[in-house]
Amino acid sequence: MQHQLPSRSGLRPASHHSREFKPCSFNFKNRLKAFVRPVVSFQATGLELASIADAVQSVVTAAAAAAPAPLQPAVSTIGGDIAALATLSPTLPGLGRLTALYYSLFSKPNPFWNIWDFYVGAPLTDNLNSRWSSEDFQLRDKLGGGNFGITFEGLRLLPDDQGVTTRSKLTGDQKKRRVVLKRVNMDRQGVRSDFLKTGTLAKGSAETGMVEAYMCAKIKRNPIAAASCAEYLGYFTSTTAEGAFTKGSQWLVWKFESDATLGDALDGKLGPFPSCLEEFMMAGRKISESTPQDKRDINVIKGVMRQVLTGLRRLHRLGIVHRDIKPENLLVTVDGQVKIIDFGAAVDMCTGINFNPLYGMLDPRYSPPEELVMPQNFPRAPAPFIAALLSPFAWIYGRPDLFDSYTAGVLLMQMCVPELRPVANIRLFNTELRQYDNDLNRWRMYRGQKYDFSLLDRNNKAGWDLACKLITKRDQYNRGRLSVGQALSHRFFMPEF
């Protein structure tokens, strides 16, 4: 049986003696269009770049003309560098100038602002902060005390208040003039003459008081950061001896904003937590009685955490690491604001104030396993000018801000897990966590049977996921833990529907 190969439709074999010619399919017009199109596009791009350059140059010319005469050459030069960069034709010196400008003005923490603040801003405002004296205040109730000082409620006196005593009932106007006064405990070590001029760790309560005054004054000069902290009014040294005003004692002054802390709320002193804060934290927002209680509770906790993390992020942008975030150091006001207080343990990573790579100040109940804001092999802080100039590099290398993000994670656990709200239990939690190499999932697997994680497990375990990413060890690159800014973007803070 013979098989016939299928023929190719439309084709026939051509003899080598004859050749078949077909019309040429080359279209010259189409090829010309294909060649001309990118050329025209390139020319159009060139025209756009030229127009951008003209626009930038006109702005630069106007800015240079409006600038003071001494600054006009610099503005014109920088503007020319920006115009060259916009047209994709930068020069090497121009790139160097723009890089230096960006580093000085926009890196974190900002070296230019911190140098100006330390050498210009601080001396200018120091006289305003130290204008007080003991005669300006009437001490009232004692609010609390610790290793480094004792705090009192006080009244800022006016000439009409001469008859006011410690137990006098205050008028509405006088209540608005209430203050918080902190008497710094004095010790034999005293204060070194060059303490705030060189980067070093505070020794004793007297220098710790100076650290707190320094930190609060720096925060006060930055309105954005100041909005998240207790309002600092200044300091004074008592020149008289009357009551608690012993002669030579150092005092710090803040505006009275609340006498209730998050610690009071967690201890049940304000009522069952977190519902005791719902009226304040949800102020201005309608609360439906039909909303499940656990959803209302987590919304209150989210409100507190969001404010704490926002405040820490603002401090970190100044180069300040608090190192002692805990419920007792968070004021809760009647209008639902959470204010950070107590900066005696804080460190300024821009100037090196209160920094030592080998030692640190911390609360073991809330501190991370590394216990230090920077690796131990990090050098001691140089002079404040050099420290501020190099601070962005130090921040990138050591990520000191992750110290505070760990403590914020412990705070989240304490608010969400009812069994961890008592102070003694949070200490036990940290001890147990160390036994499992700070692995929160392992701790929950072996020790979590006695705890209620329902608030953390809501919304597909959003809260638990955030806690695990905050309460964890650093890796070999000093990372491995969310920053407070990254935590604010976590899905835990997304609305629940």
Automatic annotation (TrEMBL):
<dbReference type="InterPro" id="IPR011009">
    <property type="entry name" value="Kinase-like_dom_sf"/>
</dbReference>
<dbReference type="InterPro" id="IPR000719">
    <property type="entry name" value="Prot_kinase_dom"/>
</dbReference>
<dbReference type="Pfam" id="PF00069">
    <property type="entry name" value="Pkinase"/>
</dbReference>
<dbReference type="GO" id="GO:0004672">
    <property type="term" value="F:protein kinase activity"/>
</dbReference>
<feature type="domain" description="Protein kinase">
    <location>
        <begin position="137"/>
        <end position="493"/>
    </location>
</feature>
<dbReference type="GO" id="GO:0005524">
    <property type="term" value="F:ATP binding"/>
</dbReference>
<protein>
    <recommendedName>
        <fullName>Protein kinase domain-containing protein</fullName>
    </recommendedName>
</protein>
<dbReference type="InterPro" id="IPR008271">
    <property type="entry name" value="Ser/Thr_kinase_AS"/>
</dbReference>
